[in-house]
Prior knowledge:
Blueprint: H1 17-29, H2 37-64, H3 69-100, H4 108-120, H5 126-144, E1 147-150, E2 153-156, H6 169-185, H7 187-207, H8 213-220, H9 228-257, H10 293-307, H11 309-320, E3 324-327, E4 337-341, E5 346-353, H12 357-376, H13 389-403, H14 417-450, H15 452-455, H16 458-472, H17 482-486, H18 493-497, H19 503-521, H20 523-535, H21 542-548, H22 557-577
Parallel strand pairs: 3-5
Antiparallel strand pairs: 1-2, 4-5
Helix pairs in contact: 1-2, 1-3, 2-3, 3-4, 5-7, 7-8, 9-14, 9-22, 10-11, 12-13, 12-20, 13-19, 14-16, 14-19, 14-22, 19-20, 19-22, 20-21
The structure holds zinc ion.
Zinc ion binds next to α12 and α13.
Amino acid sequence: xxxxxxxxxxxxxxxxxxxxxxxxxxxxETELTAENVAAWLxxxxxxxxxxxxxxxxxxxxxxxxxxxxxxxxxxxxYVESMLPPLQMANNLLQRKLVESGLQPEGFEVPLRNMRVExxxxxxxxxxxxxxxxxxxxxxxKIIGAQTVTWEGEEIPLAKLQTVAQNPDRSVRERAWRxxxxxxxxxxxxxxxxxxxxxxxxxxIAANAGFSTYLEYRWKAAGRFDYTxxxxxxxxxxxxxxxxxxxxxxxxxxxxALGVETLRPWDMNIDPTHPMQLSVDPHPRPxxxxxxxxxxxxxxxxxxxxxxDPTLGEYFATMRREGLLDLENRPNKAPGGYCTAFxxxxxxxxxxxxxxxxxxxxxxxHEAGHAFHVFESAxxxxxxxxxxxxxxxxxxxxxxxxxxxxxxSADQGGYYSPxxxxxxxxxxxxxxxxxxxxxxxxxxxxxxxxxxxxxAKDPAACDAQWSALWDRFIQGVDWSGLDDFKATGWHRxxxxxxxxxxxxxxxxxxLGAAQVWRGALSDQSSAVARYRQALALGGSAPLPQxxxxxxxxxxxxxxxxxxxVALIEQTIEQLSAVH
Length: 578
Ligand SMILES: [Zn+2]
């Protein structure tokens, strides 16, 4: 349809909406029929892929050098000039397709998504989304300004985390209290911001005709395949199965540390990840898996070749084509991510490797997302490649687990058997504690968004959070820390910025554990199923994506019990090596 469109995004880096507009116009004016709808969708895909890849490339360039004002200017100007008109143009095409009543092949799920997007779309909400964004920026500002004075030096809170490795318990306690007191100093500001968030969200839901924000958010998040009640069942299953397992795990930590009760600073110092088990009862130097980025790439490639030859080949392609930017350098943006270049049909991984095991774990995770890009690239329409997070995180979390057996050097990986066991132990322990913490975060939001008036009283939120904390978090002694405990919701960015977005990780983790379980009895068929499921992109409903991957999309205690038993049993085995 659009033969004269640039064949490569590199030729369109300076294109703006006025360049794309004639193409959108053509699509909009086309009379849709059963005969031409496939070509029409293909044309829309060509446009969308090009726009997306230019966006990804500008975003990558900006994060590769945040000190380059030109890269920043190009990125921001693209976002600002493209986003609003693009949303409008897409909205018109969606409406056109839905109203045509046509049912293109393989388009059932995207069509279902579009219908709901149109159903909840209200022009009156557009300024409210902007308002919500601004409030989000305010949250970032408050948190970003938090520093503490530690050993005479003013440092950001994140830097305090290294104290978790200090064997002196009183030093850890001091650092923990310092970090959490810093959050408490912003208590009033965060409470005030919270009420503003709730007012905006209440209005958004009302404008779209919903009586609760929960109902609105459910549709906006495209949650077609599960209900709020399913999530409540998941919480109950976690309480029944995960909490006792976590208590056993933390009891092990308590005994290893030789303390009377396990206090929060016996787990970690990080206020944003209260349940991560980072304190090492046997203080040892950090794992040093590699000496150079070249070595990080080569060993990771060897691991993927062991998992599956095709996946190994994908990673080799990324190395060959310069699709990895792994090393930490001055002026790189923080964190790590995987993005897609849909015209080139390639992924790109960005991260900040500093020589620690975390880098290996991040790379395995992001590579799982990258494999998703490779596997789903042949799908003809871009809407089929939009994968729900509940499944996308199986690609990544599943890969962390599938790759774990190959971490030791005798399997092509990095470590002695004892060090490999140490790395895997930490990962598996944190899977257990994550489910419990996730249940608190999710259950809290269920309460907030069905009782929004009550939730405008921060004291009521404190009480609700504390009650949920007591329900799901056992085995850690929070006595005498009531204010710190009650304000835990202040420290979870998602609760403020990305409402309801969290249970996805808990569900995907359960799916990933099932994929891993399958691989233990038959590696090659489990990986084949994993790849088949990735190849479906977002073209099938969640239960089918899970099933194809060899897992059940589940919320029940029985499924969770199988996963937890496997994790506990593996922890047991690894502890023996360790
Ligand atoms: Zn991920």
